Amino acid sequence: MLFLQYGIIVWGQTFSSYIEPLFKLQKKAIRVISHQTALSHSLPLFKGLQLLRVSDAFKLNLLTFVYNSMTMLAPSCFHGYFSLSSTVHNHATRQSCRNDLYLIRKNTLRYGLGLIRYQGAKLWNELPREIRTSSSRHIFKKK
């Protein structure tokens, strides 16, 4: 599973036609490890073995990157990579009052929606406040 996570922030937003074969292989491996039949449901197996699916690993790694960027734990070139909506607008908006991240304007549906800046901010804004304000990266990842 570890080799699947290498660089997943970069390649995890690719087309589903590339991700689906990896996910099918991952499910097959989980069934073999658990000594289950080919038709058994994989979700309980993932939970029982405490493993993440490819899509969940992407989300966790991307959100950890956003957390590191916001708390200045990432390399210095990423410290200003994400910005709060309150720093972009001079007036009060719903996003700025909730301390949401600013969603950059996406130029195209195909390219814009896959940007790390856009996806990271979007996933971050969906997190509950108590997770966003975790005191450490370990606690953040655990929640």
How would you sum up this structure, described in words?
By secondary structure, this protein is mainly α. It has two domains: 40 residues, no CATH class; 88 residues, no CATH class. The protein contains eleven helices and no strands. The relative contact order is 0.12.
Nutshell version of this structure?
The protein is mostly helical and 143 residues long.
Structural class: mainly alpha
How would you sum up the major sheet?
Answer: none
Give me the oligomer status: single chain
Q: How widely separated are the two ends?
A: 20 Å
Which helices and strands appear, and what pairs or packs with what?
Blueprint: H1 2-5, H2 8-11, H3 16-33, H4 43-49, H5 54-70, H6 85-88, H7 94-97, H8 109-112, H9 116-126, H10 129-132, H11 137-142
Summary tags:
mainly alpha; 2 domains; elongated; 143 residues
